[in-house]
Every structure is written in C-alpha cells, then in structure tokens.
Amino acid sequence: MSLKEKSDEELSKLLSEYGIKHGPIVDSTRKLYEKKLEKAMEDAPAEVPSPDKTYYREEAEEVTYITYHHSPVRQEVHSDVVKRRGNAEPDQEEEPVQYTEPPVQITKRTANHSAAPRFKEPARESGCSVWKVIRLLLLLAVLAAAVYYAYCRVVNNEEAPSGIQ
Amino acid sequence: MSTTSQKHRDFVGEPMGDKSVMALSGIGEILGKKLEQQGFDKAFVVLGQFLLLKKDSDMFTEWLKDASGANSRQAGSCAQCLREWCDAFL
Fold first, then answer.
1. How far B70 CA sits from the closest chain A CA (Å)?
2. Has the keyword Ligase been applied to this entry (chain A) (predicted)?
C-alpha cells in the first residue's frame, strides 16, 4: 500500500533501484509501474540497496518486519500465510502480526518458527541463502570425502582381500 | 512480412491520423471498446501510451493486457504494429 502513497519521484527512484527501465510516471503509467515494483520486491527484496536492507544479512528475519518499506510485501506474505493456514478469520491475522512483532523483540528463534510455513522469507534474503550455499558445499565436501574413503578401502580390499570373500 | 496481417499492413503503411483504436492490429471491437472506456478512443492516444512507456514492447503489452484484457498474442500484435509505425513515421 505504501507504494501508492509514494510520490512519482520516489517511485521513479525505486524503479531505478530495481533496474526497471521506465518512462515518466503519469496517471496512465503509474499503475503499471507500481505492479512491476511489487513483483520485483517480491522476487528479490534484498537487492534493493536501501539502508534498512543491510541488516538482513546479520539479523535474519528480524529487521524485515521493522521496515515499513516492506509492509506491502509483508502484507502479501501475510495474506499468503492466512490462505495457507486455511483460515480467513480475523483472529488469524494476529498470527502474522505476531510474526511481524516478535522478530523485533525476540531473536531468530521465533522468527525461524514462524518462518517455517513461510519458506519464502529465507529464500529472499541473500544473507541466509549464502549460509545455505556454504552448508551445501560443506555437505558436498563431506560426501566426497566419504566416497573417497570408501573407494580407498575398496581398492585396498582388492589388493589384499581381507578374506571375507 | 508474411506473418503480419492485412490490418497490420494497413496501419503501418500510412500515418494514423485520426484512426480509431480498433484500427490497431490485435485490437478488435471488444478490446477497442474497453480501451475507449478508459479514454483511449483513438489510435494516437494508444500511441501516446506506447511512447510514454518509451516504446518498450514488454511494458506496453503488459499495460495493454491490464487495461483491455488482451491476451499475449493480441497485445504483442498491437505492440509490433505500433513499433513498426514508429519506425516508419516517428
């Protein structure tokens, strides 16, 4: 919603930040650009070089909910969550609200819990995805070492059969 | 050129002047009416929108789909029509 409240200049700046080539923002083009921005924000919010975003990497999901920049995005996730849970009750809105509040006060633990159904979140933050990549690489390295070790053992067994066969 | 329709060739072959929006390739009666409702009652107004979007076909097709309910083919056809018209006359 805050996109609609932004001035034409701010919208123009945001569009440039996301690398969206655009023309003048006038009545007939505004809606289109707002839509494009929302989509871009959903796909890769971490790419926006706004100062708030830098906190992403360090503090995971926490700061996400502090920044009002992302309230349109949060609201979309929020409605996704509501849909996913299958509840359209107003009560349910509390949960996603909690989702936004606790991360501010409480640390990653809560955020991780609430992030479970919202797997969109971690994927969007380049900080977390870097850790994922590192973990994957470590896993791969361990696997490679294990395979190599097994191979060596097999080779040794072939040279000098241990008598099992 | 063989893939373009007669309508396309008719439009691109001369200055559009005061032609109706339905003269645009891809825009028929239904889409034309929708556009007219939004104030795009002449081809040159749609051209104006195309130019405002910096002659970006992707942006224009997205806008057109949104504004008139055109499908990808129709919007693409209209964009190509306008693009070629611009190449020839703008």
1. 15
2. no
| Cβ contact B50:B62 at 8 Å | no
E strands, A50-147, where? none
Interface contact A21-B54, CB threshold 8 A: yes
In whole angstroms, what is the distance from residue A135 CA to residue A143 CA? 12
- Using the Cβ of A24 and the Cβ atoms of chain B, whether some distance falls under 8 Å is answered with yes
| Cα–Cα distance, A139 to A152 (Å, whole number) | 20
* HSE-CB of B14 using CA atoms within 13 angstroms: 7
pTM: 0.53
What is the least distance, in Å, from the CA of A119 to any CA of chain B? 29
Can you tell me the mean pLDDT for A78-90? 46
* Complex-level ipTM: 0.87
